Amino acid sequence: MTLKTSKAIWDHLKEEYLGDERIRGMQVLNLMREFELQKMKESETIKYYSKRLLSIAKKVRLLGTQFIDSKIVEKIMVTVLERYEASTTTLTLFFETIKGCWL
After folding, report:
1. Which residues contact 27 (CB under 8 A, 6 or more apart)?
2. In terms of pTM, does the model score above 0.85?
3. Residue 49: phi, psi to the nearest 5?
4. Whose CA is closest to 32, among 3, 75, 1, 2?
């Protein structure tokens, strides 16, 4: 198959690598489910856990779907292990006093 115009080449590449809208939609749904099922492991640091969540969010955004940062922050704050509870409470109170109601 030979493609003559740049538009034809672009359309072919777009179809080849992104698939059609239905496939992208299913990929986004799978990634969102994966994001929702994530839990912090006992041996994991907050830094590594947040990198895992950000990696999933990046994949969703690359597929053209909006993924807001506050959802990632909320997920971290809700699913963080008990040993970090004091830190998250302090951070929440700090941001509430600075910006009004942060969460």
Report:
1. 19, 63
2. no
3. -60, -45
4. 75
